[in-house]
TrEMBL record:
GO molecular function per UniProt: oxidoreductase activity
Protein name, as recorded: LDH2 family malate/lactate/ureidoglycolate dehydrogenase
Family membership: Belongs to the LDH2/MDH2 oxidoreductase family.
One Pfam family, short name: Ldh_2
Highest taxon of the lineage: Bacteria
Coiled coil: none
InterPro entries hit by this protein: Mal/L-sulf/L-lact_DH-like_ah (IPR043144), Mal/L-sulf/L-lact_DH-like_NADP (IPR043143), Mal/L-sulfo/L-lacto_DH-like_sf (IPR036111), Malate/L-lactate_DH-like (IPR003767)
Keywords in alphabetical order: Oxidoreductase
Amino acid sequence: MRISEAAALVLATRLLEEHGAPRDHAILQARVLVTAEMKGHPSHGLHRLPRLVERIKRGVIDPEMKGTQRWRADAVMEVEGSSGFGPVVAMAAIERLAPHIPDLGIGLVAVRNANHLGMLAHYVEAIAAMGFVGIALSSSESLVHPFGGTRAMLGTNPVAIAVPTAEEPLVLDLATSLVPMGRIHHHAVVGRPLPEGWARDAEGHPTTDPVRAQAGAIAPFGDAKGYGLGIAMELLVAALAGSALAPDVRGTLDSQSPCNKGDVFILIEPSLAPGLPARLSAYLDAVRASPPAEADEPVLVPGDRARRRRAAASRDGFDIDPRLWEDLNAISRSRKIPAFEGQRS
């Protein structure tokens, strides 16, 4: 079924408010989930909402918490997330650090014990909108096997980078695994087999069964290169945030464990060289205009496809499993939200 952005935001926000989230916290968390859907990443979208509600009920999310911030140095803030919503804790820290960046040149936020962030693009896009270069890193449970191995030992350890230009920023958002575990879960929910090479089962054998893969391990992207980057990110986040390493991380994919992964955000003042933003935009346009390998598939730069999908979803709505929509309405204690409530004609 197809739903509107407005209807999705209304239902997600209301559901979180009904379970104790202050309105501004509920709106931010809902926006992160709905935007993931609109960009074509349902693995980080509304199917995570029932788990968030269950985690609130079990006391492993404190929907009112914004995190406790402490300056470790002039340009370094550390944050104890205290089981708050990941987006709420992260944005509160970023917004506090941002006014200092013009004087500092660079600043870093290291967060531990906050809940799942969703797509990291949300945070670097927000940083780029402030005029800064943004870098975001996060860790997770052991979900990825090392290159040459079969057992999950690393997190998916995503990284996102945004660079402001005279037009839209360049936005890169990727996991160091071949795919995020949320995508494996989404395949399991909709009953879709995995492509070969994505994952191994608990015994270390290659599998296309998403249920068996959830108990096994995902491959690193690019074999040794993705493994090397993933293990470097593993240590980097733990070293900066003081958070758990992958074998001891819990709470991003279950409903009962406190979340103890780490997150790192870096804000950098770009060069003031004359005409730099325009030169960056011109370069990206030149890349887009370069000869494509397939005539009907023009060259894109990171962020283009997600922006196009989001614009189309804002205009036309987006598809969602009707069972999930009914389940979300059933969880809510208020009246049912029609799929296109609030959508512009």
